[in-house]
Amino acid sequence: MNQDHIQNVFLAFANHSCRSDPENLKKIFHEIEQNFYTDEIEFTRARAMISLITTLAKIKNAITAAELIEEILPPKMSFFQKAAINTAFDAIYRYRDDYCETSCSFRNRRSRWGDELFSGPNRLNCVECEQLEFAEILEQIINGHGYREIDQFSSLINSGFDYIRTGVELFESGGKTDVKEKVYLQFPEVLGLEISSIKCGFNEYFRDIMAYSLSKFLMQRENNRLRLKQCAWCSMFDTAGKAQKTRISPKTNKAYLTFCSGTSCKDDYYRDRRKGRKRGVANVEGSNPG
Ligand SMILES: [Zn+2]
Ligand SMILES: [Zn+2]
Fold first, then answer.
1. What is the pLDDT of residue 8?
2. Cα–Cα distance for residue pair 238/185, rounded to 1 Å
3. Beta partners for 184?
4. How far is it, in rounded angstroms, from Cα 49 to Cα 85?
5. How many helices (H) and strands (E) does the chain have?
6. Are 228 and 242 in contact (CB under 8 A)?
């Protein structure tokens, strides 16, 4: 499997928010399938799991989701089916029963982001929480922080890579046989119903994959971190290196602003600024259409 596009995996995770549309999980998984090697049976299981996770994420309430599961599922299920549901439930609603307040290893996010994101009907689910932090890591890399200064980056790359195995395979190219790396992805074991302290759920699987995808991209070429960009208008991340640049912005401290290429982002940004100036709005820098 060719990993020249490995960055598409972490870009999909950073750009396609589960919060704006749970169906985005399928887009993310599609990129994972494109960039890792695994048994087709494993991918079939994973696809079914992603589909279940997407359904649960749309409900946005742990109790309602649990009740719905009770209702719709056949009373007699195999241990495997029950455990699979438990795994999907855990991916979205691990925070329930005070897990988030008392046991989650990422409890400090609450103090960084504020309580509003962790309570009420609009609280983050666990996948959304992971995505938000991942975007934060990319922003800090783009802002030029040293890797050691970004605590969450160190924690991400130390996540263990439990689901990734690298091997080597032979391949034919231009009439010759050569060797190349082959990266296998393991599907997380479904969680037994009795497991309360979760170390091997779907969030860890995603975390491993994103850690691998990002670090692989950063290692591919010297100074590859400089290719990572974020659009000043729509906040999407890109690594194409062909993002449009524009002049130095006196308001932000950035040397230049970047925008998605092939979109109206740059025009929209400046149109919005002009409008803001006319209305006498002092600072529309960093305004966002979402
Ligand atoms: Zn949490
Ligand atoms: Zn954009």
1. 96
2. 24
3. 37, 165
4. 8
5. 11, 6
6. no
* Mutual angle of helices 24-35 and 40-59, in 10-degree steps: 160
Which H/E stretch holds residue 56?
Answer: helix 40-59
Between the CA of 126 and the centroid of ligand 1 the distance, in Å, is: 6
Q: Residue 180: which H helix or E strand, with range?
A: strand 176-185
Nearest CA to 133 among 114, 154, 153? 153
Distance between CA atoms of residues 67 and 157, nearest Å: 37
Each residue of 24-74: pLDDT tens digit?
999 999 999 999 988 888 888 888 889 999 999 999 998 898 888 888 777
Which residue type does 225 have?
Answer: R
In the block, which residue shows the tokens 């006196």? 250
Q: Please identify every residue whose CB atom is under 5 Å from ligand 1, which is an ion.
A: 100, 104
Give distance in angstroms: CA of 284 to centre of ligand 2: 16
The ipTM is 0.83
Whether the pLDDT of residue 284 is over 60: the answer is: no
Coil, strand or helix at 65: helix
Q: Which residue has the tokens 């783009």?
A: 142
Of 120, 112, 166, residue with least CA distance to 140: 112
